[in-house]
Each structure stands twice: as C-alpha cells, then as structure tokens.
Design brief:
alpha+beta; twelve-stranded antiparallel beta sheet; 32 helices; about 60% helix; about 10% strand; globular
Length: about 1100
C-alpha cells in the first residue's frame, strides 16, 4: 500500500511544513486583524483604577477588584458593515475617536450597591467610568445649569476631551427616593459622523458628584434591524442543521442505533462512559479556569457564597449533562463503527498494550497531525479568496485576548475546548451518520450508495450547524466547512476515528491557542509548553508503547473490529415469583380509607383560591374590542397589519410580589386593576412584509381581564420625522394625558424624571410622575409613566415603584431558593431519563410490547403538535418584525417536532414497561384495588394541599390563564392535562415497580430505599419552586415518608393501584381548577380531560391482566 512507502510520508511531511509556512505568511492577509496598541496589562489596570478611585472618592470602601478586556462587538459590526469597513475601525482607534477594545476594572463589595467601573484604552489612558450609588444615598439638589458646570469642569480637569468639539443634545433629570437629583447630559460631536451613526459622550451628575463618563457611538436602528435580519439567516441555517442532527443522529443514530445494537448485544458501554465523563470533566476544568472573571457579572445584592453556589450548581449540572451526551455519542459512534467497518482498528483498544507500538496505530496518529497543515492552509485560502473575489465578510479581530491570558492556567481552557469539540463532533457528526448509512446499505443490499448519501449528509449538516457565526453571506461557513467535512469523513472511512479526532482536535487547538502563542506576557512560555505537551499526548502514548515493546510491531488481528464477538444471550427468568408478604389486613384497609377521608377535609379546608380574576374574553373578542378602541381614537389599520394576541400579564411579577409582601393581601386586592394589572390581553399590530425600517412601526392595545381598553402604545421607527418639543411643552402634553386617563391634576402628582431621546428628525420624551393624591403605601409608591414620540403620546401606564433595597433583598433570597428548586427539577429530570433508559433496556430484551410503545408515542406526538399549532397565535405574537416571518416560524416548527418526538417517547416507553411488568408479575390474590387506589389519590391531594398551605406565601396566586390566547383555548388545557397525567402515572408506576423488584416488595434493602423515598419526596416538593429552605425540607421529608408508608402499607400488595392513585390526584387538581374558570372555555377543557383520563383508566384496566 502507498501508505507504507517512505515517499508518501516524506511528501506528507513536506506538505505539512509547506502548509504551516503558507498559513503563517498569509494569515494576516486572509483575516481582518486589528492592530491594537496593548501597553496596559491587568496589574497596571488595577493600579491606575485604584489611584483614580482614591483621587475622585469613587466607592466603595475596602473594595474587591476584577478586570476584563472588553470588546464592543455591536458597534464594531456597525462600522465594518455600514460605516467604512475594517479600515475605518482601525483609523478610529488610531485617531483616538473611538476605542472598540478597552480594559474595564470593577470595584465592588458584597451587599454594597455602591460600585465603580473604570475603563482604559489598551494603551492605558483613562477612557471613562461609572459609579453606581444607592438610590437612598443623600445628595445635593441642584438645577440642570449647576450640574452641567460640575460635569464640564470634570471633563476639562480630568480628561483630554475637548468639549468645544461637542454640542449638547439631551438633558435629563431624575429625583431619587433620597430626594437627591441626578442629571444626565449627552453631547454629540459637531463635525465628525460615522455613517448614519453619531459619536456621543454621556455625563451623569448625581447630586453634586460626577458619577459617569462614557464614550459611545449611537448605532442607528436601521442598522440594528438590518443586522438582525442578516443574522436571522445564519441562525435559521444553524438551527435547521441542529434539528436535522437531532433527528438523524440523536434519535436515529444514538437512540435507534443503540437500541438495535443492544438487541444484538453489540454495545460496549463502560469505555464510552469513562471517556464521556473524562472529556466532560476536563471541559469543566477549562470553564473553572475562567472563574476569576465571573466576578465581573457578580450581582452584589447576593452574598458571595450564594453567587458561588449558583455557579457550582451550574457547573455540576452542566458537567453531568455533557457527560451523558458525550457518553451516548461515543457509545453510538464506536458501536456502529465496529459493526459497519470490521476492517478498522477497535477504538477502545487502540491505546492498549500491543497496539500502541504497532506501525498501523503510529501511522494513523502521525497522519492525523500532518493533516493540520492542509486544513489551516485551506481555511486561510478560502477566506482570502472569498473576500477578494466575492466581498464576503467576517468580523475583524485581534490575535490576542488578555482575558485568556489572565486565567490561572490559560493552557487548560484552550486544550479542553478543543478536545471536547474534536472528540465529540467526530463521533456524532462523522461516525454515527457514515456508519449508520453503511449498516442501512448492508440491510438493503446497496452499501456504497448509502455510504455516499451518509457522506453528503454529514458534510452538509456539520457545515450548516456552524453557520450561526456572524459572517456573510449566511452560507459562508457552510461552504467553508464542506471541504474539511469531506476530509475528516475520508479519514474516518479509511482509517477509523483516531486520525479524524486528532486532526480535528489539533485544528481547533491551534486556533484556540493563538492568544497564548501571540502574547508577549512574561511567563507565557510555560503555558505554551503545556499546550504543546498536551496536544502531543497521543504521541507520548505511542512512544511509551514503543519503549515497552522494544520495537515497532504489526498490529494483531485481535485489535480489529472483526475480532469482536457478541456475548451469548441470557435466558429469560420467566414470570416474577410471588414474594411471601404478610397479608393485607382489614386494619390497613380502614387506615387507607381514613387517609382518603382526611384528604377530602384537607382539600376543602386548605385549598387556596386565586388572588386575581380570570379572563372574561377570548382572542377574537379581544381583537374586536381593540379594533373598536383604535377606531374611536382615529386609528384605522388595514389588512397588511397582522393582529397578534397574547395573554399579558399572565402571572404575577415583581411589583405583585412587592405589594403582596409589604402591604398585604387587602391592599393588593385594592390595587388590582389600578396600579397592579389584572391578567389581560395584549393585541399587537405589526407588519412582516414591506420596507424593513418601516416595519419597526407597531401598535399595541392593552386590555384588562374584562376587556376594558387600558392604553394604546404606538412605536415609531427611529428615523421617522416629528416635532422637537421642549421639556415644558412636553410636560404640558403629559399633564393633559394624565388628567384624561387617570383623572389626576398637576397638584395630584409629583415630578420624578424627564428623559429626552434625540432621534435623527425628532425628539422623544419619557416622563415619570408619582401619585401623591391616593393612599400612601407602606413602602414604595404609585407611579405613572408617559412616553412621547415627537408630539404624539406613544404610551402611558401606571406601575408600582419597587425600592432598590427590597429588590436586592429579594434577589439574595431567591438565589439560594433558585438553586434548591433547580437542583430538584434537574434531579427529577435525571430520574425520569434514567427510568426511560431502563425501559429501553427492557425493550431490547423484548420485555415490552412494541405496538403499545408506538401507539402511545404516536398519539402523544400528534397531541403535542396539535398543542403547538393551537398555541401559534400567542407564540407568533412575540415574533420580531426585523426577521423574516418564515424563518422564525420554521425554527419554532422544527423545535416543536423535535421536542414532541422526545417528550412523547418518554411516557410511551414507561407505559409499555409498566404494562409488561404488571402483566409479567404475579400479584397477591387479595389486596387493595380500585377503591383503595382512589382513597390514596384523595389523601395525597389533601396532603399536598395542606403542605402547600404551610409554605411561605411570597407571591399572590393567579389562575392559569396562559392558554387564554390560543386558537382553541380549551384544547390547550385538555392536551396539557392529558399529557401530564400519562407521564406522571407511567413514571410513578415505574418507580413503584422498580422498588418492588429491587426490595422484593419491601422485604430487603429497606434502608437504601428509605433514602430513595425521601429523595423522591424532596424532588417532588421542590420541583414547582422552593419558597423557603426549612419548609421545603420538612415538606419533602414528610412527602417521602408518606410515600414510604403508602407503599409498605398498601401499594406493594398491588402495584397496579398506583395508576388509580395518580389518576385521582390529577382529577382532583383539575376539579379545583374547574371551579376557577381562568378563561372562557377552560371548564370545557378540564371536564374533557377528566372524562378522557377516566376513559384511559378503563382502557388500562382492560390491558392489565391481574
């Protein structure tokens, strides 16, 4: 073979060297590299920021410091695409007109609202700052003129800015709760303009202290919408590829592929799980390496411990999730490859003793490394040619990133990310589709055509999945990556996964390590050395094998896939024998029935009614009311305007929680429908066709729960012409509006703020006033906001001002509660998925009725899609008019199909497993049955009602109104309730059967499964949200203890009654909602759901043979 001839390897090495040399020489020509004069390092940034803070008395005292090298990507994209290109970006930085790259140093302290962020240019010049003061901090009460003098004196004395080159365009003020007045002044350069954008300078004076100086470029709305439209094409391509990836690779390759391979006993899972967890853990190390920078986003309202706990929890959950994804991908890739390509070396033995010293493994390893020269040369040539010949665009960048350099171990992050991408993507994007196609071809007798199909599919999906990068045209990345996809695919097809993984890994590692190798920082030699050492780990392993075996060897046949032989099939054990249990006594029966009776009392006595009214109109009625209200106000909108309806608000927000906790239930009820909004409808009028900028215009009509019009909001395009009112003229218009809609005179309100916004051809205003005529609140106050576009009232609304102190306390409180709630939800999801995996294993052993799986899955899949279509009216209401309508709809539809497929499979598998196991097991001849199951369900309903009433009451309870804007509202309620029932019943019955199997119906392993019951109780108690750690733990332990007692006292004697118990529990919950009528037609949906659930139970009882 040519691969064994020295001339081949000499040529390969020469091509490798030539490719690297060419890449180094041409790289600056192919990519828009910005020459940033980085003279300041992190320590210098810390030192200068401390000096400035001390000089200007910027808080807080005894602060912590963290620094980040920031990049203003949005503004840079604007300049590159709409205001002069890369050359303009470079000239702006060289001339000092604007710096896209800056150092930002943050001074902060735990639980202290006062903090300061100081920015420097890369060269180390002071560029701006912002000091945040507590809203309760006292300060001077100055007029705008006095504040302006202070601001301009600061600029003149402390900076090199020439204010004579600017003109004032905006002056605003805000009265803080401490009665301090904050003034904001915005200036604009007179002579310089950047495309349709403007160079601006913002100065803020809080009391008599300058608290902000910021340079910024006002990016026009026209560009923002054009860029959003442009990016929509990128995201549509990438999302479509991701959906195809899930359907073909995830569902088809991993789920179905492993299913059929498990049936044939071809799956080797231990090594895949080992590598999956190793790669995930190594990736987590790379992310932990960036933790020093996470303090840039630390909300000081939280304790440092809470913030750290949040990040720890996210890290653990993400590591576990990625480990599962990696393990399944590696498992499928290796298994399908072993079956499809017997001539290839077995992946899991490729580094075992006897293989590492072979010339075959040596050649595959070295070959993978040598490909990097060609890959880099191709990539650079591609960008060079497409830019010169076709004008394709990708953002300019620098070769360095000080944030990477600032991490404790820069080498870890670069190598870990490259390993994750290289190993996982080659397994999932390459091996799964090509090997899967080969096996399908073998089955159909057309192997080569199917391999070609798999080859083409993997190239397109891999390339398109990376199209969400900000490059243009949208298909640029797709075209770029097709050739590498083919190369990686050929490597895999000819030599297996090893050279493809190494080549992909090295390609990513080189690009991700550029900041390390281009840095001139002292001490970087060690990081460069570590990148080099880690990237060559496969070589070190090969050399170690050669040293142990003393010579290069030929690879034995036992190392090839063809040597694998599946283990013999285990014989079925037959029906599960009866466990000798103590009899189900009449006393136990009476206690269960008493438990049910107490449940009725608890449901009636402790049930909490909604604290807000339900909707009294449907979607069509809301649109009619909105049309009439617009007409009454002289607004007639044609058919080109889409009528989009959503429920808004659909649940209690922060203002609701604030009034509920600080003013009490009665005050909350009094404010409902006034300063606290009821559930209502929002009718949005928008256009998705026509001129992109004109589509920015929108109308909104807000209705309360009874259909009473509350306000009309008219959003104008930024570049639409209008008047430029003075503050006094605008204020007169605001007074008239407040008097008309809220019956308040100027004497009844107190000025809070006036904020102008200079548009190209008009001036907009935003005013806030405080209502001082009505009853005062214990804390916070009632406010009114009015917005003016030109001389037209754009919107007006009332709201409750929530004090900063309360807001910070709530955030701190919710941090820990959120971690507990998310952890329980995550554990519950993992438990459900583990149950599904066990169910699939049962299926591979033919312990499931396949027809039942398909019947349930197809039924639920159709119901999920119907539910999605039914909810489309309210989903579409959130669409952006800057993005093509069909792009947004297509992404949603693809996600709905994939989601419906996955969600439908879970209860389908569990239902079939439960059906098989109940029929397979021999139940006691006498024991609890339907009546006892119903009693348990009633008792549980009462128990949950009671424990919920004992939880801290942090928020008002609203009726479930979210389905009120659906096409057929009752259908959404019906489908949701039915899906919840099937999933809950199947999962809980599976858990009961699993416990019965592992404990011999509670005759052994009681200690271990007592813990399981308690954990299950904690998960269920915390899944819907934790409002207090102590009450949640108590409630969870009580729930787990109750489950244990119910199981040992009754359920273990007849596990089939679990379905009856869950059925009763859900029917009672639906019955309670039935009495609340959250929106018209909801009661029909709940009643149909109850009848259907009863019917499903009847059908289930016929399926299950006692």
């Amino acid at each position: 073979m040519i691969f064994r001839k020295p001339v081949f390897w000499i040529a390969a090495v020469l091509l490798f060297i030539g490719g690297l040399f060419y890449s180094v020489q041409v790289f600056p020509k192919a990519f828009a590299l910005l020459n940033v004069d980085l003279k300041m390092d992190r320590e210098a940034a810390f030192s200068q920021s401390s000096a400035l803070a001390e000089k200007n008395n910027w808080g807080p005292d005894n602060y912590n410091q963290v620094a980040s090298f920031s990049h203003d990507t949005r503004t840079q994209n604007f300049v590159e695409l709409g205001a002069g290109g890369v050359e303009k970006v470079s000239s702006l930085m060289q001339d000092g007109l604007y710096h896209f790259y800056t150092w930002t140093v943050r001074h902060y302290r735990e639980h202290e609202p006062n903090e300061t962020r100081i920015t420097f240019t890369p060269a180390g010049d002071f560029y701006g700052f912002k000091e945040t003061l507590a809203e309760t901090e006292k300060g001077a009460v100055l007029g705008a003129g006095e504040a302006r003098v202070i601001a301009e004196n600061f600029v003149q004395n402390e900076t090199s800015i020439q204010l004579s080159e600017f003109e004032s365009i905006e002056t605003s003020e805000e009265v803080m709760p401490s009665e301090r007045i904050d003034h904001t002044f915005v200036y604009e350069r007179k002579e310089e303009q950047i495309g349709d954008g403007f160079f601006r300078l913002r100065l803020v004076v809080s009391g008599d202290k300058v608290t902000e100086l910021k340079h910024f470029i006002k990016v026009p709305e026209t560009f923002s919408r054009r860029f959003e439209e442009m990016r929509s094409a990128n995201n549509t391509l990438a999302t479509s590829a991701s959906m195809a990836m899930f359907l073909l690779y995830g569902f088809g390759g991993i789920i179905l592929g492993l299913f059929f391979m498990m049936r044939k006993r071809w799956v080797i899972w231990k090594q895949a799980v080992y590598w999956g967890f190793f790669v995930a853990a190594f990736g987590t190390l790379g992310e932990i390496n960036f933790w020093p920078l996470m303090w840039m986003s630390y909300p000081t309202a939280l304790s440092e411990q809470s913030f750290f706990l949040q990040n720890i929890w996210f890290m653990v959950a993400n590591t576990f999730a990625m480990a599962i994804i990696y393990s399944l991908s590696f498992m499928a890739a290796e298994t399908l490859t072993r079956r499809a390509f017997p001539q290839q070396i077995n992946l899991w033995q490729i580094w075992s003793r006897g293989a590492t010293s072979s010339i075959q493994v040596l050649g595959r390893t070295i070959g993978g490394y040598l490909m990097i020269g060609f890959n880099l040369a191709f990539m650079i040539s591609f960008y060079l040619l497409t830019k010169k010949l076709f004008g394709w665009w990708d953002p300019a960048s620098t070769l360095f990133d000080p944030d990477v350099i600032a991490t404790p171990f820069p080498w870890i992050s670069s190598v870990s990310r490259a390993l994750g991408a290289g190993f996982w993507e080659e397994c999932l994007f390459r091996a799964v589709p090509i090997a899967g196609a080969a096996l399908i071809g073998d089955r159909l007798g057309r192997r080569k055509p199917w391999i070609i199909i798999g080859f083409v599919v993997q190239s397109l999906i891999f390339a398109a999945a990376h199209a969400n990068y900000p490059s243009q045209p949208a298909y640029a990345r797709l075209v770029e990556l097709i050739i590498p996809s083919i190369i990686f695919g050929l490597l895999y097809l000819q030599f297996g996964l090893l050279p493809a993984i190494i080549s992909h890994f090295m390609y990513d590692a080189v690009l991700m390590s550029l900041p390390i190798f281009t840095s001139s920082a002292s001490g970087m030699w060690f990081d460069q050395l570590m990148v080099f050492v880690l990237c060559l780990v496969p070589v070190w392993i090969i050399l170690m094998g050669r040293w142990k075996d003393k010579k290069w060897t030929e690879l034995g046949n036992n190392f090839y896939n063809s040597a694998f032989t599946p283990a013999p099939e285990k014989k079925s054990k037959g029906k599960t024998p009866i466990v000798d249990l103590p009899g189900y006594t009449p006393t136990s029966n009476k206690i269960i029935l008493l438990f049910g009776a107490l449940g009725i009392i608890a449901v009636v006595g402790f049930n909490r009614t909604a604290d807000a009214p339900g909707l009294e109109m449907n979607r069509k009625e809301a649109i009619t009311i909105a049309e009439n209200h617009l007409g009454e106000n002289g607004i007639q909108l044609g058919d080109e305007w889409n009528r989009l309806t959503s429920v808004s608000p659909s649940g209690p927000g922060q203002q609701n929680r604030f009034i509920w906790q600080t003013a009490g239930k009665d005050t909350y009820g009094d404010l409902m429908g006034n300063y606290i909004g009821t559930p209502g409808m929002d009718i949005r009028y928008a256009k998705f066709e026509g001129d992109l900028n004109e589509r920015a215009e929108e109308y909104r009509v807000a209705l309360d729960n009874k259909g009473k019009p509350l306000s009309i909001t008219h959003k104008l395009p930024e570049n639409q012409a209008g008047n430029e009112l003075t503050e006094d003229e605008a204020k007169d218009l605001v007074y008239a509006t407040i008097n008309k809609h809220y019956d308040l005179t100027p004497e009844d309100i107190e000025f809070i703020s006036a904020e102008p916004s200079k548009k190209p051809e008009r001036m907009d205003w935003d005013f806030v006033f405080k209502d001082i005529a009505s009853a005062k609140l214990p804390d916070g106050d009632k406010r009114i906001r009015v917005t003016i576009n030109g001389d037209e009232i754009s919107s007006h609304n009332t709201f409750i001002f929530v004090p900063e102190e309360w807001d910070r306390k709530e955030k701190d409180q919710q941090a820990v509660l959120g971690v507990a709630s998310n952890a329980m939800s995550f554990l519950l999801i993992i438990t459900v998925l583990a149950a599904v995996v066990l169910g699939i294993i049962h299926w591979t052993r033919k312990k499931i009725t396949t027809k039942l799986v398909l019947y349930v899955m197809l039924s639920l899949f159709i119901l999920r899609l119907v539910s999605f279509i039914n909810q489309l009216p309210s989903i579409v209401a959130g669409f952006s008019t800057a993005q093509p309508y069909n792009n947004q709809l297509g992404i949603l539809l693809a996600g709905a199909v994939v989601g419906a497929l996955l969600i439908s499979m879970i209860p389908a598998v569990l239902t079939a497993v439960v059906h098989f196991q109940i029929n397979d097991s021999k139940q006691q001849t006498s024991g609890p049955d339907l009546i006892e199951g119903i009693a348990i369900g009633i008792g549980l309903a009462g128990f949950f009602t009671f424990t919920n009433s004992m939880q801290p009451n942090l928020s008002p309870m609203w009726p479930a109104v979210s389905q009120g804007a659906a096409a057929i509202p009752f259908l959404g309620v019906y489908i949701s309730a039915l899906g919840s029932f099937i999933t809950s019943a199947a999962f809980m019955t599976f858990v009961v059967l699993f416990i019965s199997e592992k404990t011999g119906s509670w005759s052994t392993r009681k200690g271990l499964f007592t813990i399981v019951f308690l954990l299950l109780g904690l998960m269920i108690a915390g899944e819907d949200g934790v409002t207090g750690i102590g009450p949640w733990i108590i409630s969870g332990l009580l729930t787990g203890g109750l489950f244990l007692w119910l199981y040992s006292a009754a359920i273990r004697y007849n596990t089939a009654i679990t379905v009856y118990a869950v059925t009763t529990l859900i029917i009672i919950e639906l019955g309670v909602r039935l009495t609340q009528e959250p929106f018209p037609g909801a009661s029909v949906g709940y009643m149909l759901a109850i009848l259907t659930i009863v019917g499903v139970n009847f059908y289930w009882s016929k399926l299950v043979v006692k």
